[in-house]
Amino acid sequence: MSKESLTLINIAETAKFYTSLCLGTTAFLSVFAFLFLIPFVVDPAITSLLAHYDPVPVTCVATTHVYVEGISNCSWSSCREGCTKEATRCHQIYVNYTKLPYKLLKDDERISSWDVVETKFLINTEGCGYPPSVNCTQFAKQYGYGTAGTYFPCYYSRVHPDMVVARYSWDDTLRHLVLSLAIPNLLFVVSVGLLSYWYCPGCGRSCQKYMHHFPEE
């Protein structure tokens, strides 16, 4: 065997080693990424889809805003920065809503009857999130404090009519769910498949055996 052939073999073996290392690392990280995404993306997205929110924002008005401190007082929160820790300070906002679409509300129109009154108002289905997308101080200023009597758009659940949120998009929710399920699993399958083909002694022979069943052109 010539020196050039040996050099090419060494280069190929080195490339295969580093490629295998990258594939193994990718498979390992994809598993942890998927486990990480389950509580933060997958579960909230599935819960939002199952809640079957009306995609057309309806009309809400804040009736009560309470700011409390202490774990015992924060049995629920309209907005919480962080979904894995107990809230020690929280904003609790209650609203009334009517199924009248917000975009159909006329200027200076006053609503006298509401479909649901004094129900809890959440920033999203989970009532929590992480900065910068979730800023509870800004949320409280926008929907609480001195905004009582001001109408604003909100989304109610057709399955649980007393569930009202400030943010919802069916397209975004579905896209986040599909991406969080597809990307880590696809990377894992491709990485493990290539590694199995290269290093599993029986995989290559099995593939060749099945190839014999196809007629040659």
TrEMBL record:
Keywords tagged on the record: Membrane, Transmembrane, Transmembrane helix
The keyword Membrane is assigned to this record: yes
TM regions (residue ranges): 17-42, 177-199
Entries under InterPro entries matching the protein: TipE
Classification via Pfam families: TipE
Presence of the UniProt keyword tRNA-binding in the record: no
Name used for this protein in its record: Protein tipE
